[in-house]
Amino acid sequence: MATPFGSMSIGELQAGLAAKEFSAAEVARGTFERIEAADGVVHSFLETTEVLALDAAARIDGAIAEGRLAEMGPLAGVPVGYKDNLNLTGTHTTCASNMLRDYVSPYTATCVERTLRAGALPIGKLNMDEFAFGGSTETSAFGPTRNPWDTERVPGGSSGGSAAAVAAGLVPVSLGSDTGGSIRQPGSFCGLVAVKPTYGVVSRYGVVAFGSSLDQVGPFARSVEDAALVLNAIAGRDALDCTSQPSEVDFTANLAEGVRGMKIGVVPAFLEAAGLAPEVRAKTQEAALALEKMGAELVEVELPHAQAAMSAYYVLGPCEAFSNLARFDSVRYGYCDPGHKDLGSQYEASRARGFGPEARRRTMLGSYLLSAGVYDTYYYPAQQVRTLITRDFAVAYESVDCILAPVAPRTAFKLGEIGDPTEMYLGDMFTISINIAGNGGMSVPVGLGADTGLPVGVQLIAPPFKDANMFRAAAALETVYGPAPVAPDYADGKVGV
Known about the structure:
Shape: globular
């Protein structure tokens, strides 16, 4: 049986490499063998990058032979998967859309480049909802990804492939992007540590944009330490992204401090929200009590405008998506429908056939909301609501170090179970306000729900650029619940059912 390298932690992989128990080339080859054997049903990968990974492995093995492993970076020899909206030179970056089916990246996203500089082995590109529009990875033009905990259920979205690959033990860590919950919600559904840093901590250069003022890249991992190590590697100022900010924080530095003396905010309205499943409410309350027992002080806080976040997001998001997707005009980028005699009909047919239903829905909505006579009615008030939500968080953080909340109102639902787009949007009811305000947020697994027996995550939300606060609280919770396991049907080298 091949060694399940994707089930190892970063520390275990690097200890094995240092002791020469295996080589980086063996890690790379074993990872691709594992993907070939186990990803058939899950369908997390859209493309694998054997040549790139083996080239990187050769550099790591050369350094090991010379006693220089420590110089190769914090992710040296670690297999990493990338959501398919992150550019990597020479690979397809499709955003899981027919519009970009044949697009090959001519450059590499900064966040990806930084993992490579840190010594990572690039394993491939991961499935997602088309252009990140969705909460289930069912809108992918290349077929849905399935949840390794129950392959009849969704892994969440839009970064469902990134979550499923880690939950199935195919890779130890991956990168996803989060516009309204697209890292944290699949993290909860798949039982993983999943981090959306403060807006600006990670460069967005080379990330195919959905909502430019909302998008942020972050890691999936099975432990808080592994997630912190990946964030250390990718965080920081980038001259190619004017919204990025300097980061000199070591996110692993305070993981052992515990929560004694911390003030953890609890939002009563979140726990009383309509649609919150009893098993999720119970797990959130259980996690709060666990933090209190470890010495944290629980403080009730109010976010009075949070109930308006969903309405504001589904104005701001589609407007930004409409603007960002305008570049896919069949001439400069994207699918070109053949046989048209004039440019207008070519545009219309190419965009109609290149984009899937959800992408067309959000593009049309954004176009309408930005039109004359409508802009002042919807877009401007949505920006005002954004200001109010941001102020609410700022007031709350005057009395607490971080906030504990649910991630999603329920556990993973079945494929095809939710057909109404509005009902699908409600799955982000607890995550959207964090993107609107720009704060950091992360999902931490807290075991299985009492009713469904599926993973449940709780959300820790930090003040802007104080993401270390949520990592500290997350590490404390991990001492109670343990690091995230590989999904049972994929653990110990198994390949699912």
